[in-house]
Write a structure and sequence with these properties.
By secondary structure, this protein is of the alpha/beta class. It is built from eleven helices and eight strands. Strand 5, helix 6 and strand 6 form a beta-alpha-beta unit. Helix 4 crosses helix 5 and helix 6 runs parallel beside helix 8. The longest helix is centred in the C-terminal third of the chain and has 21 residues. It is globular and about 75 Å long. It starts with a strand and ends with a helix. The chain binds SN-glycerol-3-phosphate. The site of SN-glycerol-3-phosphate has 8 residues, from helix 7.
Length: 217
């Protein structure tokens, strides 16, 4: 399964990329709004760091505005993916942009019906928000299970990009269900490394080794 970083922060992305396990980046207007500097230059820098799919989202809500912004975002770098919301105008923009060979990530997906529409409009990625569904008492992973089943039935090329991941269990469950990608904030990727038995085991190995070296010295 591919792992993306959900952040617009250059330092966080550099640190995550240095781990050698990051395949791409997702941003959204809220994440980019937090960062200093020109968002186009930041996205360009992010593309240079990860050399993988980087999603930048339109802020227009009408199709023609989304197409104009979509072309601009796609022109920033060959790695750019245009993110559009799952609205009627978003689906129309997705159909048009994907028809031109521009990769589109359809975001703010909360139902299997919505995911079916995005696949039929030629989306490269669909972004169901599991954490936000959990927030309202709905099991977000049930949506992933449905989308994996539906996309499998019809061989859609759209990749399932599990978004709004709040903890490592979201990533594990997404992988067990066969989702293509999970995108996580840097803190969640960090949590994925943690296991107390790894720390305890390493400490014992090193202590035993040093003790033996001291005896032999
Ligand atoms: O890109 C979507 C993601 O950023 C949403 O995450 O944690 O705000 O629900 P969250």
């Amino acid at each position: 399964m591919k792992l993306f970083i959900d952040s617009g922060n250059i330092k966080d992305i550099e640190a995550a990329a240095a781990l050698g396990i990051i395949d791409g980046v997702t941003t959204n207007p809220s994440l980019l709004a937090k960062e200093p500097g020109d968002y186009r230059q930041n996205l360009k820098r992010i593309c240079q760091i990860v050399k993988g799919p980087v999603s930048g989202e339109v802020t227009a809500t009408d199709t023609s505005g989304m197409l104009q912004q979509g072309h601009d975002i796609a022109s920033i770098d060959e790695h750019m993916v245009v993110k559009v919301p799952l609205t009627r105008d978003g689906i129309k923009a997705c159909k048009a942009l994907s028809g031109e060979g521009i990769r589109v990530n359809v975001t703010l997906c909360f139902s299997a019906a919505q995911a079916l529409l995005a696949a039929k409009a030629g989306a490269t990625f669909i972004s169901p928000f599991v954490g936000r569904l959990d927030d309202v008492g709905t099991n977000g992973m049930d949506l992933i299970r449905e989308i994996v089943e539906i996309y499998g039935n019809y061989d859609f090329s759209t990749e399932i990009l599990v978004a709004s991941c709040r903890h490592p269990i979201h990533v594990i469950e997404a992988a067990r269900l066969g989702a293509d990608i999970a995108t996580c904030p840097p803190a969640v990727v960090d949590q994925m490394f943690n296991h107390p038995l790894t720390n305890i085991g390493l400490e014992k190995f090193l202590k035993d080794w040093e003790k033996a070296q001291a005896v032999k010295a």
